[in-house]
Design goal:
- The structure is a homodimer of 226-residue chains.
- By secondary structure, the first copy, chain A, is mainly alpha-helical.
- Chain A has one domain: Tetracycline Repressor, domain 2 (Orthogonal Bundle).
- In chain A, 73% of the residues lie in helices and 0% in strands.
- Chain A contains twelve helices and no strands.
- In chain A, helix 6 runs antiparallel to helix 8 and helix 6 packs antiparallel against helix 10.
- The radius of gyration of chain A is 19 Å and the shape is elongated.
- Chains A and B meet through helix 9 and helix 10 of A and helix 9 and helix 10 of B.
Chain lengths: 226, 226
């Protein structure tokens, strides 16, 4: 148990440094200095810097399934699930250091001597399923084919992260995501009314019965416990 | 003149290596080996690896103004100019090694000890102007505000490049871009008919009077001359 907490604390310290300085700019001794543990202790838990980077990227990928499941199980219209999920993911990219570090390490993947999982594929599948559900429920506009539309939605969403990261450190990501959905929903909805759908999604988030506990909070909690 | 050709040849050899191996994976001796010039000759033209990387990124950025101007001056409807421009840029990302290398180096910018220009800002401005022109010509749907819409379009476009690069080395980028425009134009056009607009753009490209000379061809030509 104690070993697991140490492992997790090391992972988060490493994530913080990878996020700020990148893979090449972070050394095991930096992680040692910031975490207050010896290099030996770090190598005991993670055999190499590559393995540690891989663990951060895998932890980043592991964030999504539970988040996706929580949104899919709400019983709301499929397009609302999709939009609500996208806002939860955007906040994780902005607030969760492991997600941010995993994303940066993936960008720098060609410099890391460990095969990293391929992103996007699973996201395209999840979005395709939600759009197919929207089609089955009569929510989707007639001309929209779920497969290419899901590809486009995933591209637009990840482009938003790259651009937001470059221009303002993702500070205004929620506003930009809102604007992106105004455009995309106009094309996706059978009876376009993006503003009303976005209002419902924002309202559901702030109502007490569906309050989400962002993973960033959990990360802080884990750190405090360790 | 001869010195300029040497400079250009070195830039393209460096671009090829940066594109394949990234910044950290490319050394001046790799560039020397591939170009057949001594390290001394390389340092004579570019004072350091950082300066060479910066020159590649600046050359990448320099590709756009002439390309943008050519599309803006066609006298076609503004949304057609925008779509046609996006296909020209997508082909440059797929085919032009300096553009591809500049894009990869920019992704790895945090590892490079030289300030690189910020992308996206100029693109958002160009797209905003084209959407404003579309508004003035009565091409744009009533609810679309050119500024946030331009931001969304640029995000979607650059996301497409990231995803295409990760999944298939940009092989199917034109098909994916076509699908993205089918979605976006449905939201942007005052009388949505994306298929017809895309047909007109593809037809104009293949007609002899407007044949484009892609910058990739020019790069090959320069290489052959040097």
């Amino acid at each position: 148990m104690r070993a697991n907490l140490t492992r997790r604390a090391l992972l988060e310290t490493a994530a913080q440094l990878f996020d700020e300085r990148g893979y090449a700019g972070t050394s095991i001794s930096d992680i040692s200095a910031l975490s207050g543990r010896t290099s030996g202790a770090i190598y005991f838990h993670y055999a190499s810097k590559e393995k540690l980077a891989l663990a951060v990227v895998e932890e980043h990928f592991a964030s999504w399934p539970r988040m996706i499941e929580r949104h899919r199980s709400t019983g709301r219209p499929a397009l609302e699930k999709l939009v609500a999920l996208s806002f939860t993911v955007a906040r994780a990219f902005r607030d969760d250091v492991v997600v941010r570090a995993g994303s940066r390490l993936w960008m720098e993947r060609k410099a890391i001597a460990a095969p990293l999982p391929t992103p996007f594929v699973d996201w395209i599948e999840v979005v395709t399923e939600l759009l197919a559900e929207a089609r089955a429920n009569g929510e989707l506009a007639a001309g929209v084919d779920p497969v290419p539309a899901a590809h486009s939605v995933v591209c637009a969403f990840f482009g938003l992260h790259t651009v937001s990261d470059a221009l303002d450190g993702r500070e205004h990501i929620e506003q930009h995501l809102h604007n992106l959905w105004r455009l995309l929903l106009t094309a996706l909805q059978v009876h376009p009314d993006p503003a009303a759908l976005l209002d419902r999604v924002h309202a559901a988030r702030t109502s007490p019965s569906t309050t989400e506990r962002p993973s960033a909070d959990q990360a802080v909690l884990t750190r405090a416990e360790a």
